[in-house]
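ok posting inputs for the zinc ion job
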Amino acid sequence: MYDCHAHLALPEFDRDRTEVLRRAREAGVEKIIVVAEDHADSLRVLNVCSRHHDMLLPCVGLHPDRFSEDEPAAPSREEIEAICDLARQQHPRLAAIGEVGLDYWRVKSEERRKMQRRCLRQMADLAAELDLPLNAHARSAGHHAIELLADCGARRVLMHAFDGRAGYAVEAARRFGWLFSIPPSVVRSRQKQKLARALPLAHLALESDSPVLGPDPSARNEPANLAVTVRCLADLKQTNPADLLRIIDCNTRNVFRSLSMSA
Ligand SMILES: [Zn+2]
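and the output
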């Protein structure tokens, strides 16, 4: 199985990353897609993934939270350009462009939201140019993110930890063929359970979003917890875990083509 979205390059995994990966492998996780939050993190992700290239596939991106009013300054055009240049340079080894998206929960002012949308369009164009999928985030902005990406003509999209209405997700899955990844927090989140129940199996994927969204909110999450998600999803979809995983793995390889190349 594949973890489609994890922040494993963060310093909180520096101490025991090898152990975390060993536990993931023991739980049945073959590959992990590591997302990046800004230019510095993109460099860190590339570096960490080259040290663990048997399991980790890198993304380059800019997290929408970076546009929050709590940050000292919004990302400059120069930083966004540097991220695009890095992606162009590294694209043969990238799994996706991400993490990118819209977050209207953290970003309140219309001015900053406009910058987020402009950046997301630029990232969607970049993904199209490099023929890469998008690893996307939408918080309190599900409908807006779907409309914007649809308007950009985005074809291969993973929406991670989607918190919008399940009806929007189902419509986007049917109209555009996108995937929605379910995190281990599904065991305690009624919203995620509802989303997983509503989406057809052909549009589901797995993510850990490590270090957050674990089964226990007080503990650091890690990819091995995907096993918990699989059990919960098998229950929700009333199917057996082996059949569920076969479909989910196939969905995931269709969107993230580098998984097949590196298999
Ligand atoms: Zn994330």
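notes: The mean pLDDT is 97. The pocket of zinc ion is lined by residues 5, 7, 35, 99, 137, 209 (CB under 6 Å).
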